[in-house]
Amino acid sequence: MAIRALFQAKNSNISASLFAILAKPLHQFSHPLKCKCLYGELVLKEPIMEIQQRLYHDGRPRGPLWRGKKLLGKEALFVIQGMKRFKDNDEKLARFIKSHVLRLLKLEKITVLNELERQQEVGLALKMFRLIEKEDWFKPDVFLYKDLIISLAKGQNMEEAMQVWDSMKEKELFPDYQTYAEVIRGFLRFGSPADAMNIYEDMKKCPDPPEELPFRVLLKGLVPHPLLRNRVKQDFIELFPERHIYDPLEETFGMQ
Q1: 201, CA 20 to 30 Å: which among 17, 61, 169, 246?
Q2: Which InterPro entries is this protein grouped with (predicted)?
């Protein structure tokens, strides 16, 4: 009985002290918190609310990074690894696609396409896109075309990029200025300034308000071709009269 009475007295003292601490505003704690009990002092080094908030951290990444990793499931990862393994063997790749890729769900197929584009596996990404186009649920989406065209252009696969470009226009979808800029940059890297100018002329018919990015890509890439560059420069001055154009020195390019 004596032990039970002692234990109850101890618990009541601690409970009363903790209640007093929780009822007190946190900004008043300018020194370590202390609450007296029967056997000494219970010292709290920092406010209790801060301790509780710290307990919720479990080591996982926060926000979209974690959600993005969860979208790439085991089946999608297996398909991506298999397609990369058999990409140099058309027969094995066709069998793998028939047995594993076609059974993926809609979201998984789009996820696989996006991941192949991110990894610059543009040949496999193009195959995956053609499979998606044949699905009953497929509806032409400008962003799917845009991402694939940009990936192909960055890899200098300009012939395939223009095939997707033409396919997009047949479905009455039109590129934005970022897509124009990447295709123009791809042709300039590919060594085809004439094709870049053809895309530029097509861009000038775009009904959207003009943006600087495609013009600056052309002005930089056409430095070895002054006649073409002057045409773009005049258009840029008319559309953006307040913007500055950098003209490199002629000595930089060996012209006397």
Answers
A1: 246
A2: PPR_rpt, THA8L-like, TPR-like_helical_dom_sf
Is the Cβ–Cβ distance between 31 and 50 less than 8 Å?
no
What b-and-e string marks burial along 82-103, b requiring 16 or more CB atoms within 10 Å of the CB?
bbeebeeeeeebeebbeeebee
| Pick among 3.40.50.300, 2.60.40.1180, 1.25.40.10, 3.30.450.30: CATH of 72-138 | 1.25.40.10
CATH number, domain 145-256: 1.25.40.10
Backbone φ, ψ for residue 147 (5° rounding): -60, -40
Could you tell me the two tokens for 96? 């793998």
Compute, in degrees rounded to 10, the torsion defined by CA atoms 99, 102, 105, 106.
160
pTM of the model: 0.65
Distance of CA 196 to the CA centre of its chain: 26
Largest CA distance in the chain: 108
Question: Which of these, 253, 184, 252, lies nearest to 212 by C-alpha position?
Answer: 184
Asked if pLDDT for residue 249 goes beyond 70, the answer is no
* 187-208 tens-digit pLDDT: 998 888 999 999 999 998 888 8
Tokens 């029967």 — which residue? 38
Q: Give CA–CA dist 222/236, Å, rounded.
A: 14
Judged against a pLDDT cut of 90, whether residue 96 lies above it is answered with yes
d(CA 94, CA 3): 79
> CA 175, 178, 184: angle at the middle one, nearest 5?
90
Q: Which pair of structure tokens corresponds to residue 40?
A: 């000494």
Q: Is the pLDDT of residue 70 over 70?
A: no
8 Å CB contact between 120 and 151: yes
Residues of the chain within CATH 1.25.40.10 domain(s) are: 72-138, 145-256
